[in-house]
Amino acid sequence: MPANYFLRLEYLDELIRKKATGSPKQLAKKFDVSERTIYDYINILRELDAEIFYCSICESYMYKKHGLIDFKFRPNN
């Protein structure tokens, strides 16, 4: 799995936290992927226990609870 895969998920998380994803079609264009891929990314975040919903009024995906996704290695000291 390429490293940019995780970067895309982190960027998606950032957009969701900012309530700035746009519609699934707009988001697919931002990521240069298909809408199906966007739905797959959203489902991956949901599998990681992120409660995500789409707000048609705000035209953005949003979290029900505050939080963030972090895929970086953190060494123990």
UniProtKB/TrEMBL annotation:
Transmembrane segments: none annotated. It comes from the Bacteria. It holds the Pfam family HTH_11. Residues 12-52 form the Helix-turn-helix type domain. InterPro entries: HTH_11 (IPR013196), WH-like_DNA-bd_sf (IPR036388), WH_DNA-bd_sf (IPR036390). It comes from Belliella kenyensis. This is HTH domain-containing protein.
